[in-house]
Amino acid sequence: MKPLRTGCALIALVVATPALAQTPGADELAALVRAQAAEIAALKARLDRLEGAQQVASAPATPGTPPVAANTSPPAPVQLAQQARRPQVTSPYAPQLVPPGPAERDVTRAREANAAGVTTEWGAGLPVFHSADGVFTYKPRGRILTDVSTTFGSKSDTRNITTTGMRALRLGIEGGVGTHFFYQFETDFSENEVDIVTAFIGWRNQIAAGLDYDVRAGHLFNDRAFEGSTGSDSTPFLERSTVSTAIIPQRGFYGIGIMPRLFWKTGHASFTITGDRVDGNQAVSDSRTILARAHWNPIKSDTGVLHLGLWGFDESLSSAATTLTRNTVIGGRFNGALRVSTGPLLGGTGTTGYGAELGGYAGPVWVMGEAGRRNARLDGGRPDFVSKAWSLSGGWFVTGDLPPYNPRLGSFGQPRVLRPVFDGGPGAIELTARYEDLDFTNLVTGGRGWAATIGANWYLNSFVRLQLNVIHWNTDNRVGAVTGEDDGQTVSTRVAVTF
């Protein structure tokens, strides 16, 4: 590199020497010198970048000439003499006198990626990355659900409280390799705890036209009931109905196992076998849960759907999971004193639950009814503990948007807002109502409760929403801090962002 630089300097010296200029005038000579100096500067800058030097100490081109920094144009004798009084002549070449900084390097990388065919698309608030050959995809995931709840009207001051909470605070990733392999991972940080939620790998393929399947293995979310199969960021109310929260395996909404699913044009079916959810207990065998669900859309059009669904599960409990005590929410999640309770219940050996779904939508109006029953088997020859729950809910998008029904999974997803607020529209406004009932009275210590909810949802766009629920609740617990019949009201609000 150094001989090339010396040659460049000599060329500049020859060009800049007046004795070698034959016919050009002084002005032409000055312009020529400035152009040649700019070209030399550009060449030196390129050489500096190739050598990876941030700053190259340059030697004087001729004896007595001061050193020239790598990031400045080398002074030419005629240029220095005439620069102050001659108009500048723009060189046809654009020298880069400063090595690229971080921002410029990012732009360079982006241009190189774009030239290679790497693409991104923006969906629900974050980009989806695609490799040039389409083999690899990657997308960040997350949800932020922030709630405020206040309860009043109870006969007990312990229930008349105001609280705040993060219903979900999740961060994760999803992606795929090729057309078949896919994966997803999410962790939740709400309630000051780190909790692994969805975490699986999967394989998908097509059996025939209109018939395909996937198989997922890992930490899996239940496919059970309509609202129970809907993510916490997509439910039309701040909390799922009692069917989803009470008629549930003892291990909860998640378990480690495998889930094959079959999809056709008007429905789907799934089968799941899992052990416990993520935990650190490997001293005893896990509980074993088998769960199945199917839904069918006998009527399906662009503006309407009829939904039918059936589901059930059977659970054999681990020796470390024999406690069946339940305290189920009835007036909102963030009031720990407001629950329907079974009282202490020990000695469980297994549970069996099942339920049905009937509903659908026509235009902007939707209705969904659900019912379920759970039998918990007890040791010592005691009769089963039976839980029963049902709910009826509905909604109306006053802005004319369609309900966010997902016909592939038979659940709710993110809405497709026709006129988002961020584009100058009103967003999507939905009015909702629900009645739900829960009965634990098969047990001597078991309670009962019901709740009627009216609500409003304002979807600013497909991934930002504001929610309001006003709940009138009634409980009749036989044990606990508040026994006997009690009723009151709870007002809850939520700000939700999903991406």
What is the CATH-assigned architecture of the largest domain? Answer: Beta Barrel
Count of helix runs: 5
Sheet having the most strands: 16 strands, antiparallel, barrel
The neighbouring-strand order within the major sheet is 3-4-5-6-7-8-9-10-11-14-15-16-19-20-21-22
Helical amount: 10-25%
Q: List the domain count as a whole number.
A: 2
Q: Radius of gyration, Cα only, in angstroms?
A: 35 Å
Low-confidence stretches: 1-22, 53-107
Based on secondary structure, the structural category is mainly beta
As an assembly, this protein is: single chain
Keywords: Coiled coil, Signal
Organism: Sphingomonas palmae
Biased composition (Low complexity): 56-70
InterPro entries: Porin_dom_sf (IPR023614), Porin_O/P (IPR010870)
Produce a short descriptive summary:
Residues 1-21 form the signal peptide. This protein has 499 residues and is mostly beta strands.
What this model shows, in words?
Keywords: Coiled coil, Signal. Residues 56-70 have a biased composition (Low complexity). Residues 1-21 form the signal peptide. Residues 54-104 are annotated as: Disordered. The chain is mainly β. The chain folds into two domains: 2-103, no CATH class; 136-172 and 229-253 and 281-498, Porin (Beta Barrel), CATH 2.40.160. The protein is 13% helix and 45% strand. The protein contains five helices and 22 strands. It has helices spanning 2-16, 26-51, 77-82, 102-116, 242-246, and strands spanning 119-122, 127-130, 136-152, 162-177, 181-188, 195-208, 211-221, 254-264, 267-274, 288-300, 304-316, 327-329, 339-341, 348-362, 365-378, 385-397, 405-406, 411-412, 428-439, 448-459, 464-477, 484-498. It has a 16-stranded antiparallel beta barrel. Strands 12-13 form a two-stranded antiparallel sheet. Strands 17-18 form a two-stranded antiparallel ribbon. β5 (181-188) and β6 form a beta hairpin. The longest helix is centred in the N-terminal third of the chain and has 26 residues, at 26-51.
